[in-house]
Amino acid sequence: MTTLMILIVIAFVVNGIDGYNTFDFSFESHTCQSPAHPLNPSTSEVIILSYDGGSISCDHVAFSVLNDPDLLTFELMINPLYHEDPDCSTVLEYRTSLIKKALKTYNCTNIAEDRFTTGMTRNSTFYVQIHEISPYKERARFKLKMLPMGATFSTEDAIAIISGATIGAILLLSLIGFGVCLFRKKSKK
Description:
The protein has 189 residues and is α+β, with helices and mostly antiparallel strands. It has 2 domains: 19-154, Spermadhesin, CUB domain (Jelly Rolls), CATH 2.60.120.290; 155-189. The chain contains 2 helices and 10 strands; from the N terminus they run H-E-E-E-E-E-E-E-E-E-E-H. The protein has helices at 2-15, 156-188; strands at residues 21-26, 37-39, 45-51, 60-65, 71-84, 90-95, 104-106, 116-121, 125-132, 141-153. It has a 5-stranded mixed beta sheet, with no helix packed on it. It has a 5-stranded mixed beta sheet with strand order 2-4-9-6-7, with no helix packed on it. A hairpin with an 8-residue loop joins strand 6 (90-95) and strand 7. The longest helix is centred in the C-terminal third of the chain and has 33 residues, at 156-188. Residues 1-19 form the signal peptide. Keywords: Membrane, Signal, Transmembrane, Transmembrane helix. The chain crosses the membrane at residues 158-183.
């Protein structure tokens, strides 16, 4: 029994006990034809987005929310693991639209170091965009860890279904009871 417990503990340590689904994205391998990655705040997922100074075929990566009619809102937390740009060759932006003003902008003087959290709804899209401002980008690199969390769901449909089923069952039982009473009265006469 002790050996079994030790094997279970070793399995958790080897496989990881955090239980997160990890998705890795790189600006060097990402194309603009790639669809937006669906964010699912009801599961445990971690998105790792990185850039290591290579050539960029698409300047943005998009993340959209799964089409869940019960999802109201959730938070998307972006935690920079590292951000280095000694040659001031790139600008990193967080956006909700590619044509609107950026939510947050980072460059060589304003390095992404602090966590950033933004609210999202079921119809929203989040973009991480990189701009090349110098051809000397070989030493520019960053890695971001993104976590969807804190989802709130609409429970109106579930409450309506449960309430409707309860009221329907009470009415059905009342009608059956009334029918039984009428049938007994008629059979006694």
